[in-house]
Design brief:
Elements (H helix, E strand, L loop, with lengths): L1 H12 L1 H9 L12 E2 L7 E2 L4 E2 L1 H14 L3 E7 L4 E6 H17 L7 E5 L4 H12 L3 E4 L6 H11 L3 E5 L1 E4 L2 E4 H11 L6 E5 L13 E3 H6 L9 E2 L3 E7 L7 E6 L1 H13 L8 E4 L6 H13 L3 E5 L11 H9 L3 E4 L1 H10 L16 E4 L6 H11 L3 E3 L1 E2 L6 E4 L16 E2 L4 E5 L12 E6 L14 H8 L6 E10 L5 E6 L3 E4 L2 E4 H9 L4 E11 L3 E10 L7 H15 L8 E4 L13 H9 L14 H11 L8
Helix pairs in contact: 1-2, 3-4, 3-5, 3-10, 4-5, 6-7, 9-10, 12-13
The protein binds coenzyme A and adenosine monophosphate.
The site of coenzyme A (COA) has 26 residues, from β9 and α12.
Length: 633
Amino acid sequence: MAQYQKQHQDSLADPSGYWLKAAQDVHWFKPPTIGIDTTHSPFNEWFADGQINASYNALDIHVQNGRGDQNALIHDSPVTGTQTTYTYRELLEQVELFTGVLAARGVSKGDRVLIYMPMIPEAAIAMLATARLGAIHTVVFGGFAAKELAVRIDDCQPKIIVAASCGIEPSRIIKYKPLVDEAIDIASSTVESCIVFQRNQCPCDLIEGRDHDWGQLMKNSKPHAAVPVASTDPLYILYTSGTTGAPKGVVRDTGGYVTALKWTMSAIYNVEPGDVYWAASDIGWVVGHSYIVYGPLFHGCTTIMYEGKPVGTPDAGAFWRVIQDHNVKVLFTAPTAFRGIKREDPQGKLLHDYNISSLQALYLAGERCDPDTLNWSQEHLKVPVIDHWWQTETGYSICANCQGIEPMPIVAGSPSVAVPGYDVQVLAPDGTPLPRGDIGSIVVKLPLPPGTFPTLWNARDRYVSAYFEAFEGYYETGDAGYINDDGYVFVMARTDDVINVAGHRLSTGAMEEVLANHPDVAECAVMGARDELKGQLPVGLVILNSGCTKPHDQISAELIKKVREDIGPVAAFKSVAVVEKLPKTRSGKILRATLRAIADDTDWNMPATIEDPSVLDDITTSLRSLGFAQGKK
Ligand code: COA
Ligand code: AMP
């Protein structure tokens, strides 16, 4: 552990020195002389006097350095039966042209560009073109509904929306354009124009005057160069779920992010320029931003953009096929994807049909990785399986087994140790440090390393209150867990109302808001209950207004439909029951931990503060009818 320990200690002893050295590995129009400026902590600034461009670091620099003919991006799309490859030169040409398109439509530094697209190369091109102008992109995941899109439009007020006509799920074509139209109708702010990429599978109508065809605009465009921006200028906003229904706009700066991500490619993932790196996620999530688009391109790797699923496109051998076809060296995905594969092909028989010898390691993140999944993956792939823990807020991992620094023993159930730059600690509710082995709030002592989030968009106060107020001098991760004697961190559960469904971060508060708006619902609670495939699933319990005579099945169907319409299919909200009462404390607080424990069949004690213990029988019966709480009598 000596190598790792030295790096970690150096990074904490002298953060500015450590990261200024890493910053020498990226291209600056004006190299920084300042590391971190903590004058306005926690609003810290990295490399404040540096000038940089993220798109330039992703593309131009590699073409200049002789990688022009190397593949930069491979779009592998089993749902359309196509594979498309872009070399660095070709990707740069497309990005230069789309930058010209945006510039011609008046987009300039600091403007927001909202991108609502499926997993197609044009999504990455739009991101890199926005960054090239010093404008700020905000990518919204396709599985969110129009209302969620509208909330984001109102919060960041984009000058332009870039969309595709449709997305393709294995079971259906999702028409994106009507969702965009509806979102613009719902939103109170005005969107000047939309640029729509027409897909053959389902072209859409364009609204005269507002909508423009991607292909037409590209034909008439002129290439546009990268604009130098301040290191501290925002590169993107990425909305993520918090405790309330209002999503948090996580802001990412430019210089810190370019530096940190480039560093992670070798330090954490142990890949070299020219290697093929595949993050099987979606560009709508942080993993997609950091490791489908930016990280691999900053490092001169070939990135794979996969438009398919781990199973069903066409079968549980899909991942092995992609690894073989493209010589993938590192695969990164969520444990749920491997649970899906394991469920379909428990013996791993399909692996025999492919040659996956190019694979060096599998990285998992996005949710807790159960030891079964880790062990199964390791046994069948015969490569190290590295669980690593991170959040939208941090942009890359807080804890990992840094393969490029020094591979350490893999301990199932733990994402290993703190990554250099992160001083991870576990605190009691009163802020005192807990001894090794004791569970508490996992925090990171300030300052956070570069590439993390310097603020929340339009919400400076919320930035402070949500993350830095509970424990002064620390960043509160929202996760609970412990650190063992070897320094391995164990991340056990969220301390707030965020749940993790198939690696997707969702807010139970947002779902409760939808349920509470139903005219027949008097009270409700939504919690995350354990699910074998997706890790967690949301479960709703509702109390109806007195006098409501509608059949309960009808109410449930209406509520499920409403959550799908208002939040989107990604919420996977399919379980809701009507109950007479909810378990509450004498002061009226719903006992959510007890509800979760009953649903999950974990051991629990009757809370001393419960107002009426008999309520729990009715709750248990209801949860059982939904397929949960199967073990308790
Ligand atoms: N656009 C529109 N709808 C989408 C979508 C998108 N981009 N992505 C997912 N959806 C829909 C799905 O079609 C599904 O709809 P349904 O209720 O009609 O079936 C719903 O949202 C839930 O999707 P998902 O949770 O992805 O489940 P799934 O049933 O489609 O697939 C797994 C199951 C296990 C294969 C899948 O969850 C998986 O592999 N997920 C990958 C996890 C991941 O990439 N996480 C990102 C963090 S690293
Ligand atoms: P997101 O912001 O969508 O990346 O979700 C971040 C949250 O997912 C974290 O706060 C954790 O609750 C959970 N998470 C991510 N990675 C891991 C991991 N490796 N182990 C346990 N939980 C994880």
